[in-house]
Specification:
By secondary structure, the chain is an alpha/beta fold. The protein has seven helices and seven strands. The chain is 30% helix and 19% strand. The protein has a seven-stranded mixed sheet, sandwiched between helices. Helix 2 links the parallel strand 1 and strand 2. Helix 1 packs across helix 3.
Length: 229
Amino acid sequence: MSDEDDWPEGIPHRLYGRRRGKKLRPRQERLLSEALPRIRYTDLGFAAGADALWFEVGFGGGEHTLAQMQANPDTAIIASEVYEHGLCSLLTEIIPDGAEATAPLPPRLRLWPADARELLLALPEASLDRLFLMFPDPWPKTRHAKRRFVHPEMVPIVARALKPGGIWRVASDDPTYQAWVREVFAGQAIFTGPPPAETRPEGWPPTRYEAKAFAAGRSPLYWEWRRGS
């Protein structure tokens, strides 16, 4: 979905910030040109026979994705990220130094190097068992609030892609975003969940962004929302 005229009303066409930071090293360029096309999501065929299908929105450095993949080998995972250095971080873990970019790739993992919302809109209804949003860009300025992934217009889109009873996990250390999450979920009736946990629950792998939050003296909150039937 790239035509802005087809984009759902009320949702900004551009959610993310930059795609590229400092210049990529030659091996990173090869990973993007040779490995990424082989692991890019194209259809749900890779998930055939899997116990569940999970989707991570904005995986950053990939720590959470890798930990979930290793702890849940029978689960199929789609991980989305637009920032090239983030994609390279995950690809480097999958294909370590010394291995060719054409080395075998995890069969239950697919990457989506584009706006996660496009894929959510394209996935079959009730196809996901879980969705993860770990420490997203808070877009702290009021005028940028519409760019936040947690948004009143996004709630039914996520719900459509999740199965009844499916789980949406959200973690954030930003006070503005934490207040925003409370406000958005208080104004909807599709998802239910307890108050957020103040310490990382079991089964939630740590990430570099969580570590940065602790180092800066910020206190993350961890929500788990469940889609109604």
